[in-house]
Specification:
- By secondary structure, this protein is mostly beta strands.
- Strands 1, 2, 5, 6, 9, 10 and 11 form a 7-stranded mixed sheet that branches.
- A hairpin with a 4-residue loop joins β3 and β4.
- 32% of the residues are buried.
């Protein structure tokens, strides 16, 4: 397959969705310019059917911090196994959030104007987390630093880089890639790549 990608070995096959190859490195794919955000300027706003709040970096670091190991699957046919992250779980974050009745979806808003949608059920999955560290180092800006969401059970475009807002909705609203032909959900094992 070359120096960048390889076929999964026998023990890895059950963890690699159909149509995927394993990346030897961690590729960076971005549409548009990479936003440069200082920690002093960074904010995470929460709005919609929820009590509106704005979190700054010190608020994020005050949440219970954990390490996470997760496989990462890109819609462009590569996967990376056992990626090591640090950050905080969605479940811990949601203890600070007051949802109104009727919420069904979450729109991620990111610096640079990128958006991507999730069902509330996908957002609240036990394995979903926010990451600010990758492989023991501060999350590089190319990989979404200072903060990104990681949704291991969906294709990687659903893991919004440069996260700065969460909008809670009572209906489905499509994000950037979903409006441009990608699948509404993006589940790798079902190969939900495109609409």
């Amino acid at each position: 397959m070359g120096k960048y990608f390889r076929k999964p070995n026998t023990s890895e096959k059950q963890r690699v969705p159909p149509g995927q190859h394993l990346a030897n490195r961690f590729p960076v794919l971005t549409y548009g310019e990479t936003p440069q955000i200082t920690l002093e300027d960074w904010q995470l706003k929460v709005w919609g059917l929820v009590k509106e709040q704005t979190f700054v970096w010190s608020d994020i670091l005050a949440l219970p911090q954990s390490t996470f190991t997760a496989d990462f699957h890109c819609v462009t046919h590569w996967s990376k196994l056992n990626v090591s992250w640090a950050g905080f779980s969605v479940s811990n974050f949601m203890q600070r959030i007051e949802l109104q009745p009727g919420v069904t979806h979450v729109m991620q808003h990111c610096y640079g104007g990128y958006t991507t949608n999730l069902t509330l059920d996908d957002f609240l999955q036990e394995q979903t987390f926010f990451a600010h560290t990758l492989n023991g180092e501060t999350l590089p800006v190319d990989h979404g630093g200072p903060l990104r969401l990681v949704i291991p059970h969906l294709y990687a475009w659903k893991s919004g880089k440069w996260l700065n807002g969460l909008e809670f909705l009572d209906h489905e609203q499509l994000g950037f890639w979903e409006e441009n032909g990608y699948h509404r959900r993006g589940e790798p094992w079902a190969e939900e790549r495109y609409s």
